[in-house]
TrEMBL record:
Keyword Nucleotide-binding belongs to the record: no
Name under which the protein is recorded: Alcohol dehydrogenase-like C-terminal domain-containing protein
The keyword Transferase appears for this protein: no
UniProt-listed Pfam families: ADH_zinc_N
Alphabetical list of InterPro entries matching this protein: ADH-like_C, NAD(P)-bd_dom_sf, Zinc-ADH_QOR/CCCR
Signal peptide positions on this chain: none
Domain (Alcohol dehydrogenase-like C-terminal) ranges: 57-167
PANTHER family: QUINONE OXIDOREDUCTASE (PTHR44154:SF1)
UniProt keywords, alphabetically: NADP
Amino acid sequence: MAPAASVQPIPAELSAGAAPAIGVAGISSWLSLTWKTNLQEGERVLVLGATGSVRQTVVQAAKVLGAGRLVAAGRNAAVLDMLKNRGADEVVRLDGDHQAALREASQGGFDLVVDMLYSAPMVATLPTIRPGGRLVNVGMRAGRNVEVSGTVLKGRDLLTYAANLPSAELRQEAYARLAEHVVASDITPEFEHLPLEQVAEAWKRQGTSPNTKLVLVP
């Protein structure tokens, strides 16, 4: 039996596919932008590693919350192209000299970076943040160890988000807000239905980062 604090009321208008698709991934996206970093309207935002399922929701949530200039960076060209239609003002491929491309895309320095990668990609992004700006790390797809120059970090805030830190009330409120925006078509979660008997296949696909939520249907 699931703990009561982990149960989320689901609006009747929310589809059976979207409801789980905005669960942990959606709540982490919303709270990393609100509770953890207090995104302000008009701020310049970068989502680093934007092509996974959590990151795609971050991009859309940042736009809903009022990001002034929103840049999505990742390796999957097809997903980046899709994000242009989901709120991203510009996309940057993480290949070659992407630090220079990100600096140019920021148009003066990012106010906030939501980092899903950690390790070397995160470090390379720090100089593109304006003095007084902040970075919040949510994921570690690129590695779990990093060496950061104190000189580069000086004047920039380095934050971290973990799904177990917000209270149950905060998580429930975040889910309710997300559900409202999904029902209103402001946020479109990417998901794919799979029959329950394909659970083994779903686990294998999940291990290859399929860039979509896999929803098992009994």
